[in-house]
Amino acid sequence: MGIEGIGARVARKEDKRFITGAGRYVDDMVVPGMKHAAFVRSPYAHAQIRKIDVKAAQAMPGVIAVLTGKELKADGIGNLICGWMIHSKDGSPMKMGAWSPLAVDKVRYVGDAVAIVVADTKGQARDAAEAVEVTYKELKAVADVTEAVRKGAPQIHPEAEGNLIFDWEIGNAKETEAAFKKAAHVVKMDVINNRLVPNAMEPRAALGHYDKAEDHYTCWTTSQNPHVARLVMSAFYNVAPENKLRVIAPDVGGGFGSKIYIYPEELVCLWASKKSGVPVKWVADRSESFLCDAHGRDHVTHAEMAFDENHKILGFKVETMANLGAYMSLFSSATPTYLYATLLSGQYDIPAIHGNVKAIYTNTAPVDAYRGAGRPEAAFLVERMMEVSARQFGISPAELRRKNFITSFPHQTPVIMNYDAGDFAASLDAAMKEADYAGFAKRKAEAAKRGKLRGIGMSCYIEACGIAPSAAVGSLGAGVGLWESAEVRVNAVGTIEVLTGSHSHGQGHETTFAQLVAERLSVPLDSISIVHGDTDKVQMGMGTYGSRSGAVGMSAISKALDKVEAKAKKIAAHLMEADEGDIVIENGALKVAGTDKSVPWFQVALAAYTAHNLPGGMEPGLKETAFYDPSNFTFPAGCYICEVEIDPDTGVTEIVQFVAADDFGNIINPMIVEGQVHGGIAQGIGQALLEGAHYDPDSGQLLTASYMDYTMPRAADLPSFKVSTSNTPSPSNPLGMKGCGEAGAIGSPPAVINAITDAIGTEDLTMPATPQKVWAAIRSATKH
Amino acid sequence: MYSVNYHRASSVADAAKLIKKGDAKFLSGGMTLIPAMKTRLAAPSDLVDLNHIAELKGIKVSGKTVTIGAATTHYEVATDEKLKKVCPAIAELAGLIGDVAVRYRGTIGGSIANNDPAADYPAALMALDATVVTNKRQIPAEKFFKGLFETALKDDEIVTAVTFTAPPKAAYQKFPNPASRYAITGVFVTKGKDGVRVAVTGAGDNGVFRSKEIEAALAKKFDAAALDGVKVPSANMMTDMHASADYRANLVLVMAKRAVTAANAGA
Amino acid sequence: MSEVSLVVNGRRVSGVVEDRTLLVHFLREHLGLTGTHVGCDTSQCGACVVHVDGKAVKSCTMLAAQASGSTVVTIEGLADGADLHPVQAAFRENHALQCGFCTPGMIMASVDIINRHPDGLDEATVREELEGNICRCTGYHNIVKAVLAASKAMNKSKAKGKSASRAKQAA
């Protein structure tokens, strides 16, 4: 490892602009003649649109255009799509209802877009949006999945009878039933995984610009995957052919999944730009983000686990209802199926598993992947089950887990996944040691003297990152391939640009990707630039989500570097009249191993471009491209331990320590990896203690629609975290990396709830475990 | 935000004149009014800015008599050394309002004129038996606060100051809403020559109120133990998604106990 | 419409704006100072924090007209030329930012926190003081570290400055 290469704690290259206020986010973009948009949104959760009258709005000061869904349809703009086909257990395809970017005849959730107003200023656009007169006939709404599937519930889409989108299964029902027949113990649980609002700090935004002279569109958008956005807007929404559409995702202020999807607003801004003849910018208010960004989680699950007399797991049965909201968002069908139920085996050797997932429409915002996406729901279920089972059996939670850990790899689970590497006991040992688990009883007794209830809980999570290979996901219904691309462009003087299909919105790619190049080509970090986020600059790529940028995106760079390195060595060998196989790259030069002969890196690059003296038949230039498709998912895993103290008088939970021991395989920059873990844990603690999106069950109004009611984790809500990593390299990619972006959010909620339930002595507690709920749980436990 | 006309008042008299324009509102710190305007929940035609009126600013302490100008910020109240000597409880309360950026701008006059049922100052003023001074009259706190967001103020009446006699013992305990950080329950207790006063904010379904049960128990003995077994009725408590009436009733008692302990420790 | 006139990052600026224009929009749209961000509409996230007359305030909760006559410092005006402010440097050294969106407000608020605590800070105080700034990326762990580190650095340089001036006086 060099001081700037793999494994170094290099300070981030991109920080300079962010700490000086020079970051460039979509809302910072200004195009000559640019105007501002506001959307008219439904105040009802479910209603028929009787009439839309735009006359008054058109007459308002500064108004340039008021456009509705009818005009959008007339221009041939397509409906929004879901990009992953799921088939129900009876073989029928999922029942997807139509999602018009601007609602035409019906609105299905509060916030559903009905019209767009373009005006000189944002204030004027807002004023005019209020003047658009929409006549609605309000219909009965349903916000909760259990209500939505009842007979007589409001029918949301004609395509999905009884609001059921699909009824899907995984694993083997018969074998699982057989396992339960042999069981000495069966533990049953009902679990709710609470609905969350992603809340990236930068609200979504779009700037659409139609250039009449060139007949060309440019869209600046807050996207985690600009190429996918271009593909979808072009191929499905008919905005423009791909060669006439440039999508730019500049600095993006956090995503967490919510900026994967192609929402109505960006394509409507593009269309409206052509229609109105001016560039159109829309920036969401936080209130709009609450209403209209894709939410996360929202599962209702019943689960049963069968054990033999020695507490070895025999089988696992899971029935889940997943709320997908009012429309199927881009990957909404994959999140509660292949990203969730495939992880039901956890870290455990479970011979038989059967999972059934029903996806259901409700009159709420669309639900899709949010940091972890399906895997937090699986981890919460499995890890609550392990903890509760251990308590019922009267054995230690660590012992029950150890007894059931998978210990040899590769391991084929009954739910598709083939775990390729791991050492689960190592993470558990590391976490227990760091947490001084053995000393807990003493700490609990000391806390009791102060009138506090102290509890400890653990979570041994596993997740799957870098969804792959493309052929496999294609067979499971994915509409896209899940590879990644890279181009390494060595300039004539030896500086380097790396064009990557990954997108950085906080992950620090400009640094870590450059570290990989610095390590491989032995050049200074400063001479390497990472280019991303612009479809005109970068070849087709798949973007950043599912912790894939390291394992998949960097592997693509690594493959391109292989080619660059090979060509550079050939040139160097030719220049030094040496054997290609003897060339090594060291200290900024290509050397003949074992001699003092060397050519500086920049001279090799220059030689490639002057082409005065290249090996016979070699093309000039030093630039290589690679598309990398991994052979398997990667499987980050680890153990989290949370210790809490609860004030029984108020129900307030304080996290007194939080330990994370993760196995991410090989790591490029430990500082950045730790940062990812910190952020993930904070979101997980947020889910466990603070955050929950609540809709009024009757009206379908979002009750937690701002930070006044939706509790975002703040500094004083959290402790400093104790994080460490161990390493079993992934054999499925050339860099041995697994991914670290989501682990914290996946592993932490069960650890927190296991700790609280340990402290208060009852399992009857839902997330978020607010002071009121904890206080009530303590009261009902002591009453019984 | 809807269109609005901004006016900067140079004196109380000037402000009283300007407020007659259209549907005008006074703007003090703006920490509640501007967010409400941004989300279009408030739509005044005109704003009369009170921030540049020198006579509304500052804290005077004379013996035990405290006078706080209406345009004095929460930050100034929280950090005023003279005030902290005679009545640390109100300084501590001010230090619990919002975050520091809010405290730099928000004012005591603005807060009490708004009378948010979850604001902190109303509890302090009721428990301190304070007097609200306006450009027209003096109003005892108990008559000033009238239910949710309602006060005794007339349309063109401007709060100019708050005045009270610092009691020997006082303390405030707040249980904040985890999201908004307003009080889910805040209890201000005082023990002065006229006895014990206990005012509760955040919990009641009709704004700030005095808790008779707790006052009676503490009148016998000003000690947390005196509140053991006291029943705080949940009948008139607010219920929302953050806290049920029962939970709020419990918090009133818990916060009252802690406030009494703090008041005794501070004395 | 109102004419507003203020000093921003050491420069006298003025403009005619709609009375409803917030200070943050005046900075971003009229002056092109886009480092100050808007992350919420309830005055809670703190992405918009700037210094007005030396105090950290939320520029989304103040009209430009209210700020007229004031002196404003934004994230763009914090560094001393090419030299980063110690808080900026500490944020980078401690990896206290990821997506960078909350960062300008976080840094401006942190400068104010450190200024108000000349005798130093501890972790609990920093966490309490950051109440008005929300970050979704970092879990605050490294932000807290950075503020503590910057506080130390600034106090040290102040002590140095003091002893230097004492030395001068003695001479």
TrEMBL record, chain A:
Xref: Gene3D superfamilies: Aldehyde oxidase/xanthine dehydrogenase, a/b hammerhead, Aldehyde oxidase/xanthine dehydrogenase, molybdopterin binding domain
Keyword Nucleus (UniProt): no
SUPFAM superfamilies attached to this UniProt entry: CO dehydrogenase molybdoprotein N-domain-like (SSF54665), Molybdenum cofactor-binding domain (SSF56003)
UniProt keywords, alphabetically: Molybdenum, Oxidoreductase
One Pfam entry name: Ald_Xan_dh_C
UniProt keyword annotation of Oxidoreductase present: yes
InterPro entries according to UniProt: Ald_Oxase/Xan_DH_a/b, Ald_Oxase/Xan_DH_a/b_sf, Ald_Oxase/xanthine_DH-like, AldOxase/xan_DH_MoCoBD1, AldOxase/xan_DH_MoCoBD2, AldOxase/xan_DH_Mopterin-bd_sf
Alphabetized GO MF terms: iron ion binding; oxidoreductase activity
Highest taxon listed in the record's lineage: Bacteria
Stretches assigned to the Aldehyde oxidase/xanthine dehydrogenase a/b hammerhead domain: 20-140
Database matches in PANTHER family: ALDEHYDE OXIDASE 1-RELATED (PTHR11908:SF132), XANTHINE DEHYDROGENASE (PTHR11908)
The protein's name in its UniProt record: Carbon monoxide dehydrogenase
Automatic annotation (TrEMBL), chain B:
Keywords from the UniProt entry: FAD, Flavoprotein, Oxidoreductase
Keyword hit for rRNA-binding: no
Keyword Flavoprotein: yes
Coiled coil feature spans: none
Any one GO molecular-function label of the UniProt entry: oxidoreductase activity
Domain FAD-binding PCMH-type: 1-169
Superkingdom of source: Bacteria
Pfam families: FAD_binding_5
PANTHER family: XANTHINE DEHYDROGENASE SUBUNIT C-RELATED
Name assigned to this protein: Carbon monoxide dehydrogenase
Source organism of the structure: Pseudaminobacter soli
UniProtKB/TrEMBL annotation, chain C:
InterPro entries: 2Fe-2S-bd, 2Fe-2S-bd_dom_sf, 2Fe-2S_ferredoxin-like_sf, 2Fe-2S_ferredoxin-type, Beta-grasp_dom_sf, Diverse_Oxidoreductases
UniProt keyword Iron-sulfur present: yes
Pfam families recorded: Fer2, Fer2_2
The keyword Iron-sulfur is assigned to this record: yes
Record domain 2Fe-2S ferredoxin-type: where: 2-78
A single MF term (Gene Ontology): 2 iron, 2 sulfur cluster binding
Source taxon at top rank: Bacteria
UniProt keyword list: 2Fe-2S, Iron, Iron-sulfur, Metal-binding, Oxidoreductase
PROSITE patterns cross-referenced by the UniProt entry: 2FE2S_FER_2
Gene3D superfamilies: 3.10.20.30, [2Fe-2S]-binding domain
Identification of the protein by name: Carbon monoxide dehydrogenase
Organism from which the protein derives: Pseudaminobacter soli (ex Li et al. 2025)
